[in-house]
Design brief:
- This protein is mainly β.
- It has 5 helices and 36 strands.
- The strands form 5 sheets. The protein has a 22-stranded antiparallel beta barrel.
């Protein structure tokens, strides 16, 4: 990192401390609270870099795509192709995953969304069922498994204090239609929230239509002053056709085209999933509380691909208990959070021949079975975090996560290669230590050190012939970070900065063995360094108009520190699959009568597409506009009308890339997933509170 960055930030911080601790009355930003799962009570007092997206942020676009909101957070980059194919990376962690998201743990309330296959899918949850998203960058949260890249906490919406009914509809370009119905009922001792949504689009590329339905039930019962039961149930059905990636020539001249083999086979992903949980929270004493939950996660997946048909079944269940409380030793006040988590994942997968070439142009057709294996994983997590407030200015926070993972592989087909074996990783210890300094009530500085890890996925643990590769190790790394959070200008301006350095060892590399087929190897080390900045400002022009601008930026240096793959030495090259620099800015004009106008801008730097750094994607800039009117028809009955334009300049860009794409035969590598051209949408909603 450039030493000038540190000098500038130190000067900035020292200058800010001279400001008065008194905040006069005026138009101020509301202090951001974080979920009760943390040991801290507010974003300002958390000694970590945490990106927060509230309900307004999540619905600032077309109510269907979470990637636009997530990409506002500096250091976080979500690539999205055809809604169902997504990859989230945090500070470069997870950027090399071929398809999907791993190395990041995610939770919906207390329920894990990350499977035993180490894959995370958050796109199935309807944005209108989420009250807040919190993204912890880096392995700074011991209580959430010390995920290498961090953790994503999705806080469910729970209208437990009101009785409501609402309906909304979204219509947009390329056949986009989303309809949502919500109903909430609240009594003195219980609550019920039910939500149903459908989301469809024809897609703008070949073989890219998408259809999703979901129903969610959530609420509380036996609610008392010191205890309550909470429940959650979600069922999702999805069928999404896959256009896959395309080569550079097609991307430049015919981006709406799909990959020829995927179009010919009419390849798609189809699944049914069930997510459910039951939680009991109670106050044991004035200084001690407990929350215990049990959960299930089931998924039945069917994915016809040009080279085979993949059928997968996942059934996971588990339990989690956590104790929170506080105590005082002398003048030192302490908060604590400790507990246990058990997670069991049963996976069955099989592949079959895809006879689409013999199916008279009708698409995929299942043939003979090629392989079948079963895998069972058991995860044991013990976690603890403690906060010691030595004074009003100085706090220390320490944490520890201990993970033990045991898994069993049973290959049943082909029968001549059948075998059964067990394997376990050594216990992984992940400590964390942070210091928080408060020069006054409205400004904080912190430093931290932590260790995190990520377990290999099912595919990464297997050799090319389907046996367990006992040489595969979990990826681990150490993170060092410093940052600050400040209110200025009578609490109308909120700013954050963070500087970090993270070294990853035993890097898992997806080594290609066939058309869209990979195995994993531990191939080296990566170094992740960077700086992140963000600011939110509220300007009250007069009693009629308020202006809310924001800006965020991340400057990174992600590189292979030591990386040798198949005798190719890539040490010193830039890390594949992630932009080094990213910036976002936006402004919203809000009026007293409910009319508003907003604009947001995103810049994404070029991305290295292969480990040799011989091919890069182009940098791009996206501008979105939205206007709307929120009004009350009569007491308790409100309506919202909005219209928006995305990618107003019709920028041609890659919304997702396939790293290290390999050419077969006379074909050229298929690196690119084209992003949507200019597109339009409109939204109307009604809500009645009774």
């Amino acid at each position: 990192m450039n030493k000038n960055y540190f000098l500038i930030i130190i000067f900035f911080c020292l200058k800010s401390f001279s400001q008065s601790d008194t905040i006069p009355k005026g138009e101020i930003l509301k202090e951001v609270t974080i979920s009760t799962f943390h040991i801290n009570d507010s974003l300002l007092n958390a000694p970590a870099s945490i990106g927060i997206l509230n309900e307004k942020d999540l619905q600032s676009n077309n109510h269907t795509d979470i990637s636009t909101a997530i990409n506002r957070i500096p250091g976080v980059y979500m690539q999205s192709a055809n809604v169902t194919t997504n990859r989230i990376s945090i500070r470069g962690i997870g950027a090399r995953t071929p398809y999907g998201t791993n190395k990041i743990r995610a939770f919906y309330g207390n329920i894990p969304l990350t499977s035993g296959n180490s894959e995370t899918t958050i796109e199935d949850i309807d944005l209108e069922n989420i009250s807040q998203v919190e993204i912890i960058k880096g392995p700074l949260s011991s209580i959430y498994g010390a995920g290498l890249g961090g953790a994503i906490l999705i806080i469910p919406k729970n209208n437990s204090n009101t009785n409501t009914a609402s309906i909304s509809t979204v219509h947009g370009s390329f056949g986009l239609v989303k309809n949502t119905f919500n109903y909430g009922l609240n009594t003195k001792s219980s609550s019920l929230n039910i939500s149903y949504h459908t989301l469809k689009t024809d897609g703008w590329r070949e073989n890219s239509s998408y259809n999703r339905e979901g129903i969610t039930l959530a609420g509380e019962f036996f609610r008392k002053e010191k205890s309550k039961f909470s429940y959650f149930f979600n069922h999702t059905y999805l069928k999404a056709f896959i256009p896959s990636s395309i080569n550079k020539e097609t991307f430049d001249n015919n981006p709406q085209a799909g990959a020829p083999t995927w179009v010919a086979s009419k390849g798609f992903k189809q699944y049914k999933s069930v997510l459910g949980g039951l939680s009991y929270e109670f106050e044991i004493s004035k200084n001690l509380n407990n929350a215990t939950s049990v959960f299930i996660n089931y998924k039945d997946n069917n994915e016809p691909r040009p080279f085979d048909v993949l059928r997968q079944y996942n059934f996971a269940y588990g339990a989690r208990t956590a104790f929170t409380g506080n105590f005082t030793i002398g003048k030192t006040k302490s908060n604590f959070n400790f507990g246990l988590e058990y997670f069991r994942d049963d996976y069955t997968g099989r592949t079959l021949e895809n006879l689409y070439e013999d199916n008279n142009g009708l698409g995929s057709l299942e043939g003979n079975k090629l392989t079948q294996n079963n895998q069972k994983r058991n995860f044991y997590n013990a976690f603890a975090q403690m906060l010691f407030a030595f004074s009003e200015q100085l706090e220390l926070q320490t944490g520890l996560n201990i993970n033990k993972t045991v898994f069993e592989l049973d290959t049943t087909f082909p029968t001549e290669d059948a075998f059964k074996e067990s394997y376990s990783y050594d216990a992984i210890w992940s400590p964390q230590l942070s210091f928080l300094y408060k020069p006054n009530r409205f400004q904080t500085l912190y430093i931290s050190a932590s260790r995190g890890f990520s377990l290999p996925s099912v595919e990464e643990t297997l050799t090319a012939n389907g046996t367990i590769n006992s040489n595969i190790k979990p990826v681990s790394g150490y993170n060092f970070e410093a940052g600050g959070k400040f209110y200025f200008l009578n609490k109308r301006l909120y700013t954050e900065f963070s500087i970090y350095s993270m070294q990853i060892k035993d890097l898992l590399v997806a080594q290609r063995i066939g058309d869209d087929q990979y195995v994993g190897i531990n191939a080296g080390q990566t170094l992740h360094q960077g700086m992140e900045l963000s600011a939110d400002y509220t300007i009250k022009v007069n009693n009629f108009l308020a202006i809310n601008p924001f800006v965020s930026a991340s400057i990174g240096k992600y590189e292979f520190k030591e990386f040798i793959d198949n005798e190719n030495d890539f040490s010193g090259n830039e890390l594949t699959g992630v932009p080094a620099n990213k910036a976002n800015a936006g402004i919203t004009f809000n009026t007293k009568i409910g009319l508003y106008l907003s604009a947001d801008y995103q810049f994404v730097d070029e991305i290295p597409l292969n480990d040799a750094n011989s091919v890069y994607s182009d940098s791009y800039e996206i501008i979105n506009l939205k206007t709307g009117y929120n009004f009350e028809l009569f007491k308790g009955f409100t309506s919202k009308i909005a219209f928006g334009v995305n990618n107003i300049s019709n920028e041609r860009y890659a919304s997702m890339v396939l790293v290290n794409a390999t050419a077969f035969g006379n074909a050229t590598p298929r690196y690119y997933y084209p992003g949507l051209p200019v597109n339009y949408y409109g939204n109307v909603s009604f809500e009645y509170v009774f």
